[in-house]
Amino acid sequence: MTRKQTTEKATSKERTKQGILAGVLGLISNLILFVSKFMIGILSGSVSIMADAINSLSDTASSVLTLIGFKIAAKPADKEHPYGHERFEYISGLFVSIIISYVGFTFLESSFQKIIHPENIILTPVVFLVLIFSIGLKFIQGKMYSRIAAKIDSNALRATSTDSYNDVFTTLAVLISAGVEWLTGWRIDGYIGFALALYILYSGGMMVRDFVYELMGSRPTTEEIEEMEDSLNHYDQILGYHDLLVHNYGPSKRFASVHIEVDDSLDLNQAHRIVDRIEKDFKERLAVDLVCHLDPVPVSNERYLAVLQTLREIVTTTAEGLKIHDFRVIKEGKILQFDVVVPQQCHFSDEKLEEIIREQVKQKIGKYQVEITFDHNYLL
Q1: CATH topology of domain 301-380
Q2: Is the pTM of the predicted complex or chain greater than 0.85?
Q3: What gap in Å lies between CA 99 and CA 47, rounded to an integer?
Q4: Which of 75, 182, 259, 288 could form a disulfide with 243 if both were Cys (CB 3.0 to 4.6 A apart)?
């Protein structure tokens, strides 16, 4: 499914409606789970069941934050937030992740105490049935989150869906712990609770990392980059493109900029029609607000093309993966001006690269003043 199809299915109003629905359903189901687990945890004296109950309580807080997050994220752009409020969805997700991590630390302490001072678990038919009910309800909850996340393209709900499925496995672990003690008399409850705590801490930490990356401005996915590059490659009217930059201001608000190379014999109106078409196609097909910068290339100038070809050979043989773009001959042919794209795996510093390239230009092209801008493109 393309980004356009996803966006068409989830207008701003529909996105808010579906997000709030997920929050309400999650709130109700998590409250039911918390109350039932907490009661049987007290009756059975099981720290792992109590820990699982508190985990359901944290999931209840998550549902409340989901409701608040989608409500604020739906607010339109204003003077203080010209790109809208969609990033608040990441903020609410970050708070949820912090809560989960804190609960993990609490579980770790209580489980450690249970290992030192083990107690019997009272396994009754009621305990067994509630745990089975918990597994079923959490599985349904995970399915619900997953479907709504796909419908409105929400990473926050995808994370919540994963958390629900994780709860299915952790509750199974609790059930196994109680069953093992009932059958063998081995008191492994504290160890199971300790393992659960470590798992919750790990999940919380990974979620904190992911949402911090989103707030800081994470790298677009490989699929998104390939979609944009594939779209640009279909335009025969352009000679090439470079400096593709993507900015994310929320799950459905993406902006990008790119430099488009065109024949310098085109007049301004012709060039404008080309970039205008590209920008409109990006908006309609990929739901990306694109801004194109024009780079005219003198394709009929034989001297220019000869120097460019030599420069490319110099740059590509200096280090593996180097590329050149934005080549200009200015100040009556006295200055060569160009950009060099440096891949992440390059072992040379910019200063060393510049030294090598300047010397090669002097030997193979002539005595020119050389102005080099180094681009470190992390989308590659």
Answers
A1: GMP Synthetase; Chain A, domain 3 (3.30.300)
A2: no
A3: 19
A4: 259
